[in-house]
Each structure stands twice: as structure tokens, then as C-alpha cells.
Amino acid sequence: MNKRIEQPLPESSVSSPARVINRTLHTADLVLQRLRASLWRVRGARLSAKVMIGSGVMIREPSSVTLMDHVTVESQVWLKVVDHRATI
Fold first, then answer.
1. Are 62 and 43 in contact (CB under 8 A)?
2. Alpha helix (H) ranges present in 1-88?
3. Which domain of life is it from (predicted)?
4. Tens of pLDDT, residue by residue, the chain (88 residues)
5. For the purposes of burial, counting CB atoms within 10 Å of the CB of 4, is it exposed (0-12), middle (13-18) or buried (19 or more)?
6. What DSSP designation does 81 have?
7. Residues contacting residue 43 through CB under 8 Å, at least 6 positions apart
8. Which of 20, 36, 54, 70 is buried most deeply by CB count within 10 Å?
């Protein structure tokens, strides 16, 4: 008689539907933030590879903005540069 004793899986390895949906939405949000950063690069901002831009961000003089690694600009932020010689 060979009985197999089943042990419960640790909670970290169980993927509930809510957890999968949450992870998918988080990944989609990261992709959108990086895509917004790419669009600001096209408009003249100097941004490193790991910059993330939230929704509704406005930059008045994108060519005056330089952001380095691991910077997140939250949603609804307005960066207003009043002189083209100024830098952020």
C-alpha cells in the first residue's frame, strides 16, 4: 500500500485570480509609464531608461528637463520652466 501524503502549497506559490489580475494591471501600468517617458524623449526631454511618467504630466519646456535613473514623476504633475536656459 503506497499512500501519498499531500502537503499544502505555500501561499506564495498559489495564484488566485485576483492576484493574477492585480499583477497584470501593475505590469500594464509600468508599460504605460515607460511609454509616456518615450514620448517625452521624442519631444526633447533627456530621460534615462528607467524613468516612469504618470498620466496627465505636463512639461512646458521638455528640452530643459533631464531626469536620471529610477525617477518616477507622479500623475497630474506640471513642470513649468519659464526660461529656455533653465534646467531641471
1. yes
2. 17-42
3. Bacteria
4. 556 666 665 655 557 888 889 999 999 999 999 999 999 999 999 999 899 999 999 998 999 999 999 899 999 999 988 887 887 7
5. exposed
6. -
7. 59, 62
8. 36
SS3 at position 64: helix
- Give the pLDDT of residue 4: 64
Cell numbers at residue 46, please? 533627456
- pLDDT for 27 equals 93
Residue 64 grid cell:
530643459
Cell numbers standing for residue 42: 521624442
Q: How far is CA 83 from CA 21, 23, 43, 68, 86, in A?
A: 45, 42, 17, 21, 5
At 72 the pLDDT is 92
Break the chain into its structural domains and give their ranges.
16-79
